[in-house]
């Protein structure tokens, strides 16, 4: 994952010094993300982050004016993941599997919901974070929309609802799943997502082929197996 | 709406005094809900609530130990709405219309999202509110589950996913819609809900009849009209 889009303060320095700078920023970010995942954003302190990253506390502030700014950089990294999704969209052959795979990776660690949970809480109370959240939602929506466009082109997705609206609804479903899941204290997020995906895709499939048989490369009704957990 | 399930402190007093007590509690609650809707839960002060309810500030604490407890009573009122939904479920004839009507009333005022937005933020940070939120989610899920059971009985809802799991997923979709809608600052929640409903119900319809034609009393494909906003 590149740090190109991160907003590191300070003058541009070439070569080794710049590389080292990026390595340090990356180390701070990774340590922070691990701590956010483990303990949540709010309780994590800058001291804990710098200790985990093995840098002096003052060093942190050479890279990020505050913990909040660090979170903004986490958002930037998330947007990079969606940029990749957007680039891959035009060559997808099975959009359901493609998006399911992306979501599986994106929410791979159960602890990642710890961040999402925190961020949603903060997004509705902290304007700066709310803004970054909204920017990221829009970026993600645009990327997912490309996948649905591809699906419409391939006849795998209904065309009576625009790709952008399908993408927004998909986003609502993902975030709602995250919320209810976090409050419920479950430990089977992938199963929750499977159920959510099954209902969403049945609803997003083209009507004429029968909602449950729109997946490419799968036998008809293959997704109709009992879902119970 | 009855206050029977509210947890008012103090000894039981019969007759007129008890009636007056309930009236005052109801007035405080209504004023609080209106203020929460208008300005959000967090910025609203007890002073503003008592002023709007036209009672002395001290009176508030005869009824509710804190603003947080008042919010817990709002949750109790919400659970009463779901109790009604649960009671009506066995006689519903068109479950899609029934649930859509309930959601339309439940989220009738656009400002009600102000409360939901606040409550979700608080539910992930304040344990007491998180607990009440989870209790209410479970109650709502049980009620909605009865509606889906009815729908399964009538052949309007797919039976390969349990009614309870459908209800949980429905809940995820509603809450996710609320979140993305609040962050987006839209003013057309009912349209957002319409789109969400359309995709959800297409996905929840029985496969054999074709996903878009399961609504009772409507011509086939009637729900396939262009959804764009």
Description:
Two copies of one chain form a homodimer. By secondary structure, chain A is mostly helical. Chain A is 66% helix and 0% strand. Chain A contains nine helices and no strands. In chain A, α8 runs antiparallel to α9 (189-204).
Distance, first to last CA of chain A? 35 Å
State Rg of chain A. 20 Å
| Quaternary | homodimer
List the domain count of chain A as a whole number: 2
Instruction: Give the CA-based shape of chain A.
Output: globular
Q: Quick one: biggest sheet of chain A?
A: none
The percent range for helix content of chain A is 55-70%
The largest inter-chain interface, given as chain pair and residues per side, is: A-B, 58 and 58 residues
By CATH, the architecture of the largest domain in chain A is named Orthogonal Bundle
Structure at a glance:
Two copies of one chain form a homodimer. By secondary structure, chain A is mostly helical.
Q: What brief labels describe this structure?
A:
9 helices, Tetracycline Repressor, domain 2, disordered N terminus, 2 domains, globular, mainly alpha, Arc Repressor Mutant, subunit A
């Amino acid at each position: 994952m590149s740090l190109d889009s991160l907003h590191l303060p300070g003058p541009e320095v070439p070569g080794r010094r710049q590389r080292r700078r990026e390595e340090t920023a990356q180390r701070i970010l990774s340590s922070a993300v691990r701590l956010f995942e483990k303990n949540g954003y709010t309780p994590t302190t800058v001291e804990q982050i710098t200790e985990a990253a093995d840098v002096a506390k003052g060093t942190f502030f050479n890279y990020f004016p505050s913990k909040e700014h660090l979170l903004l950089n986490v958002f930037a990294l998330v947007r990079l993941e969606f940029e990749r999704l957007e680039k891959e969209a035009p060559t997808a052959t099975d959009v359901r599997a493609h998006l399911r795979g992306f979501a599986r990776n994106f929410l791979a660690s159960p602890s990642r919901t710890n961040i999402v949970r925190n961020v949603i809480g903060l997004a509705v109370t902290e304007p700066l974070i709310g803004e970054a959240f909204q920017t990221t939602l829009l970026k993600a929506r645009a990327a997912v929309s490309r996948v649905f466009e591809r699906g419409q082109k391939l006849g795998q997705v209904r065309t009576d609802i625009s790709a952008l609206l399908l993408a927004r609804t998909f986003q609502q479903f993902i975030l709602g799943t995250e919320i209810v899941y976090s409050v419920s204290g479950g430990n089977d997020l992938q199963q929750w997502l499977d159920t959510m995906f099954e209902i969403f895709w049945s609803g997003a499939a083209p009507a004429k082929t029968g909602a449950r048989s729109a997946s490419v490369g799968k036998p008809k009704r293959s997704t109709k197996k009992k879902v119970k957990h």
